[in-house]
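Archive transcription. Copying these from loose printouts into the bound notebook so they stop getting lost. Printout 1 of 2:
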Amino acid sequence: MRAPNPSPFTMSPSSSPLLLLSLLLVFAHFAGCMDSEHFDVVMKLASCDDDLAKKIVEEHEMKLKGTSFMDCFYQIEFANPDLSPEEKDAVLQRLREDPRVTEVTKSFAKTRKRKTEL
């Protein structure tokens, strides 16, 4: 009699470390993809003053993108885009705690898909 074919889903004990390493690399890759997600930061001041806004964002290691819009809103970005997500969050938290700043919002870009790609 012939021995039954082994299932392609069975693992030998020697392949377990390889599978574990592969899974760790996959998770690390996707974590890196999530960290590099782009978002926009908007800051609102109590009074519209471009010079004050520039001074504030430079103190917090950021820079202005253009001039004010609507009622004293400024779009800002990080001066160093290579900061880790934790460092970016810390910078934004310090900016929120600044008494001259009324509001800081962080918005993620919307992903758009065609109906055929759902």
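Printout 2 of 2:
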Amino acid sequence: MKLALVVMLACGGNYIDPDGENIFFYEECLHMNRGQFTEELHNKCKKYSDIKLKESA
């Protein structure tokens, strides 16, 4: 019974991502630019994430 509840909560549409909303695009950008993490890369990936979120909305 508990397992079914966990599966239902994990697969439901109201799941709250603890890392933030739609963190996927930011992580995708970091992966595509595999290098040393810099403030410039952070800003680039944040901008990329914002653009992708607007496209998917």
